[in-house]
Amino acid sequence: MHWLGLEGRTALVTGGSSGIGRAIAEELGRCGVKVGVNYNSGQEAAEEVVRGIRDRGGEAIAIGGDVSKPEDCKAMVEQVVDRFGRLDILVNNAGIQRDAPFTELTLEDWRRVIDTNLTGAFLCAQEAVRRFRQQRPLPNAKARGNIIFINSVHQLIPWAGHVNYAASKGGLKLLMETLAQEVAHEKIRVNAIAPGAIRTPINRPAWEEESALNELLELIPYGRIGEPEDVANAAAWLASDLSDYVIGATLFIDGGMSLHPPFREGG
Ligand code: NAD
Q1: Rounded Cα gap, residues 86 and 247, in angstroms
Q2: For 10-265, CATH number?
């Protein structure tokens, strides 16, 4: 038995085909969770994640779907339930960036980011809460259901040139906290992780070139970029009963990025 005691539970990880979502799906799989690995465009990548989980003796399926579409979110939860019998954990991870200086940002790119990062998380959470209420709680689980939002340090730190992204993540913070407050009495736990700079395709230009990486490292007191596994380890803990009394919390996993690093030298 794995020390987190998650064996037999089921999860849906949105955007599980890449980066942080992929690492979370793989870690949950290692913990004995049956995982629905959602992808939007990366079917092959999602199937590779599924194969990896199965090769290690776990259970997983790839599930296509666009989180910004209500019918897709409903179908994604249904597919997990059809295959594994229930849904215990939702990881709302899918997210995109479409960056532009403020006056050049198109309405289309504003909407695409808000629709994916904020509305998508709302729609999936709504389907998950409905499902948690319908099903019989697991006898060996302390909570009735568990939702983890993957937010960002930009729920806190303003980010010039990324107003759509920062607005989506700021909105996600109060979506998460309000939902946590609303459903805690039903024993549904809702929390978030706010990663700093994690090495994934979403921010490749920030770490691929040495000069860009050195600039980035100026913002990270701990002196290294984060890896997807740094986030995945915390997600598995948040999904488990070991964090049972943690409600509406945001765990910053950022090597200290949110600690205002320039104040180390002055202020
Ligand atoms: P990524 O680009 O590697 O992964 C994003 C995932 O979301 C992909 O699997 C993609 O297919 C999926 N996705 C995008 N639009 C979708 C849609 N409409 N429906 C379903 N899936 C969709 O990036 P990542 O860094 O792994 O990002 C994952 C999450 O972590 C995002 O919410 C991002 O904002 C957040 N985050 C990342 C960092 C970082 O430094 N990498 C920092 C803070 C927060």
Answers
A1: 22
A2: 3.40.50.720
